[in-house]
Amino acid sequence: MLRRSLLGVVVLALGPLAAPSQAGADPGKVWSFKADRGFIDDPVAFSGDDALFAFVHTDAAEFLTLTVIKTAGYSKQAELKLEDPTRVPKALAFVPGGGKLVMVWADGHSGAHSAGLYDLSSGKLLKKVGPATSAVFCDANGEPVVSLISTKADQKGGSQHSVTAYRLRDLSRVGAGSVAIQADQTLARPPLRLLYWEPGQLHLVGMMKGKYDKKRDIRLPDRAVRYSVLGRKEVWAEEPREVVEWTKATNMRPNHPGQYRFLQVSEDLKQLEYVDRQNALGHLTTPIKWGLYEPKSLVQAESWDGKTLYFSMTIDPVNADAVRKKKADKERMDLYRLDSGPKATPLGQVPTEKRRFHWTVGARHFAYLHKLKGFGRGGTQVELYQLPR
Questions:
Q1: How does pLDDT run across 242-288, given as a tens digit for each residue?
Q2: Computed over its alpha carbons, how large is the radius of gyration of the chain?
Q3: Does domain 1-132 correspond to CATH entry 2.130.10.10?
Q4: What is the pTM assigned to this prediction?
Q5: Which of 79, 153, 224, 367 has minimal CB crowding within 10 Å?
Q6: Interacting residues of 208 by C-beta distance below 8 A, sequence separation 6+
Q7: Given CA atoms 339, 342, 343, 349 in this order, what sign does their dihedral have?
């Protein structure tokens, strides 16, 4: 439960936040904001048309400010001063149309997650849902939703998973469902063994034992089943075509919870492996020589609907080529979009200054947050870069 009311919100229409960066320093950088106190929190968001950009400025104790800027001219659209600065923002998402925004946060004391719908013109909290164990933005039949997940362990090592989905546009309820997972990762209803959850736990994929064929006196092969938690029914059931490859792909999925598609560095650290929604396994080649990258620097994120996968790799200053040249390379983040093929399409490059970072991609820009040193949450400066046309 929240410790304070969330209705105390102020909205101001303000002038330019900062002048666009001068050309020459960082190609593609068009705007930046540096916190004079506190820090810029991790969640940032672009509206669907990329016309608006939102970020959170806080000190986690005395103030919590949600700022929205226009990407045309980089002036402030709104500034919402939210109560209870101890809560921890987890995710932001604009409602289609740009006039409203949903924020997911964790209570600073209990850790429980909630989501609130804010009107950007008035600053009012229109609706709140939660609390729950976690809350994530995802896709439900082509519509953006926020999924609230409550997980409760039982005394036998199993767990009960209850899921409620709300439409992003107004936080109206789409539906709810629950499943019980036993300690051995099996379900009684439906009778299958859990392999992995899809984003928001709206669906799960598991293996169901093959049925007995009396005519041929044989047991049919096991089938992979996709089960809808909200619909309480099978979506599809099929035998994996390439069993060895399919099994390897599904065994990789626990490392990438909440993703339809993902990349993973191979065990020998020499290439990127790619797994699609159907668990087909492939390999990806980057435009930059793989040996220049730090293999463990892979960062990736999917769009809410799972249709687009973005990832970044970081140049290793002391890669093999640099060692041969006896001159260290500059550490740099290279951002990519995964396209069909699969193919890695370059989106931009940013010098890391040997700091951790966080990025988010919009339709025409990407945001880059310079993370704090020695503190896991937030950063000192956020920048916008134009994407290539």
A1: 899 999 999 999 999 999 999 999 999 999 999 999 999 999 999 99
A2: 23
A3: yes
A4: 0.89
A5: 153
A6: 190, 191, 192, 193, 222, 223, 224, 225, 237
A7: positive
